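User: Could you check the structure of this?
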Amino acid sequence: MESEWELDRVRLYQLRCQHPEWTLQQLADAVRRCLSWVKKWLKCFREAEQPLLEMFKSRSRAPRCRPREVVRVVRDAILSLRDSLKERYGRVVGPKTILYHLHRDPVLQQQGLYVPRSTRTIWQVLKKGGRIPTRVRYHHPIERPDPMQHWEMDFGQISDAVEFLTVIDRGTSILVDTQTQAHFDGETVLLAVTSLFIRNGLPQKLRFDNDTCFVGNWLSDRFPSPLMQFLLCLGVESDLVEPGKPQHKPFAERSVRTLKHECLWGDRSSDGIRRLSQAHA
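Assistant: Sure, the predicted structure tokens are below.
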């Protein structure tokens, strides 16, 4: 690969010598490179004192300007300002406030030390100094119920053409059922769940989110929706997911993504999606 790049640079140099009247775009078309690449290497050719083979070698990708190091005195001053300004402002100060007072420190100005100007550098010093704790998130595995006893249900949508309702078994991660409609509402969802129970039996629990098709809206004044009443009559427990936490039904969310971006991506017509969803189920 490197030899091919060098040949392109040699060819660019030859074309520039043979056709000095050519524009940069003509040179880029001739070597099949972008305009910025041609500008970069023509500048390198002009800066070279005489044409040598090293002129066509790749340049080092190491940074030319190394970041300046914050000395220990400045780091201690940053940590001290973090602690002392808390009493002055009555709150925990951030990097911007620390920068403001840091550049007005007479001791640092007399010593002529390098004082950072970026809030990111201040944040890094505070992080290393232990002033900003690291938040650790502990992930716990999901306890799997018995097979076909606890299901997850969720909606998916393919553009504006069709919506689908997918049901996943929480114990085995298998797809129980998928039904499609042009648009789901409270009535069609109730019919879809009825068809689901007729074909696959009754689970002990059914987990779903707070979609209005499932739980109704605020106008119902806490009166259970038709789906909730239907599940209550059948003895199926409604397992509602907290708002804003779709990770509590991960199997349904993963299935929706699979159906949207893998199984149903080709034919987006209503009939085509219905055939594919039935075949996938």
